[in-house]
């Protein structure tokens, strides 16, 4: 059995359309039972749930804080040992304030090697007394980006805390109520620590399948599975839970244990296993379905698998009311329902049905689909119960005594990963883009309706569904509007210039993070790129898989640090850099992992490019003073993009063209006082000024002097700090402004 689930759907936010559809199916199932008492009970439970949901939302709204300005606070937190995730010197976890009972997301950094060792080996619940800065959780600041604020709000959390000092830490005292949970979290922490010591790929698989944790290197290690949509084999679907429970049942039967005893033991052990396996939505569903089936058998209830699914769905809603809004939960419950309802279909039709059921969620979450996913499912899914899971269990169990066997298991899993990575490089990836939510709902409803038809009538309806996918694909890839979009990449720059019908895709800078040296005792962490969550994610959501012209304004990391991610994820046809930068060796290492050869073209004033080059005038090292300044007209407005150019460069531009003006000015150097001279602003007379800067950045950007200059010249400014992504969408010579956090600005 295979489930074509999105690779990253556990972390991508879903739309309530799929959850509403699941709720409707559940109610339809209850109605078909034709038992009035069950129907009344269901309506009462839903009414109680709705009232609870409304009251909780009111409470969360009262607790809400702004996400821009932090406030100082002191907290006493109860922290479970398996909640703390370490990445280098940084850590983060979810905890509960002992005094107020309020949940918080918490982040901080270890100060010493001893503190790091203590966190790495902690296996008991602890109480932390801390001081720090608290604020609201940052929502999605770019269009089509994962919304962390919504995700945590569904779990009753609306605040985040940055620890600045730990004033005390001690072992927590367990009560009668908390003792069982503490015991489960203790053993999960021990299991995570044991899995962390495993070699290579075995560590990634063991962490994902046993405690439901994520290894730091899992993104790189499981890249083939990710691109082929096979990560449902991990905790998202609960498939591994069902297999493990089935294996336990098989073992008990063959050991000739009395069924009454081992069924009772399994029922009592399911809550502990739920904690041990990571408490995810897929684990919750699988544990409750098996528990309900065992209970129904013991009490002689006529409880079908579908009934168990419906009851598990209600339990899931009670535990996590945000289940309806989260893509991971929607996929786990939705595709397990598909397996139930399609159990009597032929193998071919079951595969078609599961693919069509998973596809709307896949496209809504990852925006792409690989045509080899069906082949990969056919090859890998049968291997999961007979190879992947047994090899993972064997390598984990024998490591303390036979590490050579564990290394062999790791090597076998690594070869599987390499094979899938190679398969994912073959042609067939479809950069579809993000469909409208109502389109995805219609696809899902159409798929369910399709399987109510007799098999002989289905072929033409399958073709009708496929035609609808093609039509939607065309509307996404050939939009009649163009846009100029300033991404919110934190303390950095990245700007998209997309022509109508996607005739030309240009990008100015990629964004990136400035690196800072770490002490020797800090363990290395895999390289990650913010662009994968911000600008690359947005391009994929628009069905864009290439960049015609990628301008790099200069060599600072906050402008070009994420270049490797673009070269790996997209086809970049041409890199345009300020004259002189092409000869600098300092940034050439960013090109080494490019998927395809990249043409590098140095430009200066007078060079031919899709944008008018206003600076530099001669070749020189690509410092701020030699930054590219580019100009172009889009949708009836003239735009000037200044990179990090300083006031001396601005003066050169004015001297070369005393009539220089623009409608929209992207301020140089993130609004620093080193740029945007009063004379420059007065000469240009822009209608709008755009500032790209990070929240609470250490440089104090934008500078107060720059903001004063703008006010004195009556130039309204819009900043990514407060508005998030800023975009101008146009058709012909008319358009409108839109920001992610504040909506429409001006038409």
UniProtKB/TrEMBL annotation:
Q: Does the keyword Transcription regulation apply?
A: no
For this UniProt record, give its keywords in alphabetical order, as a comma-separated list: Cell membrane, Membrane, Transmembrane, Transmembrane helix
**By its UniProt entry, which InterPro entries does this protein fall under?**
ComA-like_MBL (IPR035681), ComEC_N (IPR004477), Competence_ComEC/Rec2 (IPR004797), Competence_DNA_uptake (IPR052159), Metallo-B-lactamas (IPR001279), RibonucZ/Hydroxyglut_hydro (IPR036866)
Spell out the SUPFAM superfamilies in the cross-references.
Metallo-hydrolase/oxidoreductase
In its keyword annotation, does this UniProt entry include Transcription regulation? Answer: no
Q: Which residues form the Metallo-beta-lactamase domain?
A: 491-695
| Matches recorded under CDD domains | ComA-like_MBL-fold
Record-annotated membrane-spanning stretches: 7-31, 37-55, 228-248, 268-288, 308-328, 348-367, 379-402, 435-452, 461-478
* Location in the cell: Cell membrane
The membrane topology term of the UniProt record is: Multi-pass membrane protein
* NCBIfam families according to UniProt: ComEC_N-term, ComEC_Rec2
Name of this chain's protein: DNA internalization-related competence protein ComEC/Rec2
Q: Which organism is it from?
A: Levilactobacillus lanxiensis
């Amino acid at each position: 059995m295979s489930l074509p689930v999105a690779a990253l759907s556990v972390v991508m936010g879903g739309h309530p359309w799929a959850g509403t559809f699941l709720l409707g199916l559940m109610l339809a199932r209850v109605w078909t039972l034709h038992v009035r008492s069950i129907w009344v009970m269901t309506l009462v439970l839903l009414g109680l749930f709705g009232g609870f949901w409304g009251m909780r939302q009111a409470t969360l709204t009262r607790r809400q804080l702004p996400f821009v300005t932090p406030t100082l606070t002191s907290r006493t937190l109860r922290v479970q040992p398996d909640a703390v995730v370490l990445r280098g010197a940084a850590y983060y976890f979810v905890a509960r304030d002992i005094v107020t009972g309020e949940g918080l997301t918490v982040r901080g950094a270890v100060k010493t090697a001893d503190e790091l060792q203590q966190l790495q080996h902690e296996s008991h619940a602890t109480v932390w007394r801390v001081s720090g800065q608290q604020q609201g959780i940052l929502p999605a600041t770019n269009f089509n980006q994962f919304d962390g604020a919504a995700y945590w709000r569904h779990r009753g959390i609306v605040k985040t805390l940055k620890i600045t000092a730990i004033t005390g830490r001690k072992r927590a005292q367990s009560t009668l109520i908390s003792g069982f949970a503490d015991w489960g979290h203790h053993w999960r922490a021990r299991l995570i620590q044991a899995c962390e010591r495993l070699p290579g790929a075995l560590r990634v698989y063991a962490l994902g399948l046993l405690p439901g944790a994520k290894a730091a290197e899992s993104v790189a290690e499981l890249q083939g599975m990710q691109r082929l949509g096979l990560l449902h084999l991990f905790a998202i679907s609960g498939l591994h839970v069902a297999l493990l429970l089935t294996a336990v049942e098989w073992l008990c039967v063959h050991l000739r244990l009395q069924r009454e005893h081992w069924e009772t033991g399994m029922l009592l052990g399911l809550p502990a296993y739920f904690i041990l396996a990571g408490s995810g939505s897929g684990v919750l569903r699988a544990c409750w379905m098996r528990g309900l089936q065992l209970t129904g058998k013991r009490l002689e209830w006529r409880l079908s698998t579908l009934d168990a699914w419906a009851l598990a769905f209600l339990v899931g809603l009670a535990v996590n009311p945000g289940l309806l809004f989260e893509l991971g939960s929607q996929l786990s419950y939705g595709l397990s329902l598909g397996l139930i309802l399609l159990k009597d279909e032929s193998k071919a039709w079951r595969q078609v049905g599961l693919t069509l059921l998973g596809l709307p969620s896949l496209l809504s979450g990852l925006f792409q689909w690989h045509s080899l996913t069906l082949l990969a499912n056919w090859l890998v899914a049968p291997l999961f119960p007979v190879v992947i899971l047994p090899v993972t269990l064997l390598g984990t169990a024998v490591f303390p005594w036979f590490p050579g066997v564990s290394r062999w298991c790791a090597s076998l899993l690594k070869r599987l990963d390499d094979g899938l990575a190679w398969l994912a490089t073959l042609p067939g990836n479809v950069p579809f883009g993000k469909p409208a939510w109502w389109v995805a709902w219609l696809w899902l409803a159409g798929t369910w309706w399709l399987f109510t038809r007799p098999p002989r009538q289905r072929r033409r309806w399958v073709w009708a569904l496929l035609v609808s996918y093609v039509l939607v694909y065309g509307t996404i890839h050939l939009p009649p509007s163009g846009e100029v979009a300033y991404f919110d990449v934190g303390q950095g720059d990245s700007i998209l210039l997309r022509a109508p019908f996607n005739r030309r895709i240009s990008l100015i800078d990629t964004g990136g993070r400035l690196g800072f040296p770490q002490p020797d005792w800090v363990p290395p962490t895999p390289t990650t790129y913010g662009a994968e969550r911000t600008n690359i994610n947005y391009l994929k959501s628009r069905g864009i898989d290439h960049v015609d012209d990628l301008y790099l304004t200069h060599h600072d990391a906050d402008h070009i640090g994420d270049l490797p991610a673009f070269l790996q994820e997209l086809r970049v046809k041409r890199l345009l850099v300020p004259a002189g930068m092409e000869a600098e060796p300092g940034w050439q290492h960013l090109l080494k992992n490019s998927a395809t050869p990249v043409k590098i073209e140095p430009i200066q004033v007078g060079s031919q490019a899709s944008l008018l080059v206003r600076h530099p005038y001669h070749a020189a090292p690509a410092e701020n003073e030699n930054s590219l300044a580019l100009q172009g007209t889009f949708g009836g407005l003239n735009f000037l993009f200044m990179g990090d150019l300083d006031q001396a460069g601005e003066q050169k531009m004015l001297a070369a063209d005393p009539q220089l003006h623009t409608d929209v000015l992207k301020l140089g150097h993130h609004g620093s006082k080193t740029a945007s001279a009063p004379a420059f602003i007065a000469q240009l007379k822009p209608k709008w000024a755009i500032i790209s800067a990070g929240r609470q950045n250490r440089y104090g950007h934008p500078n107060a002097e720059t903001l004063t200059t703008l006010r004195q010249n009556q130039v309204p400014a819009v900043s990514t700090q407060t508005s998030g992504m800023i975009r101008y969408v146009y058709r012909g010579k008319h358009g409108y402004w839109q920001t992610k956090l504040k909506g429409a600005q001006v038409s």
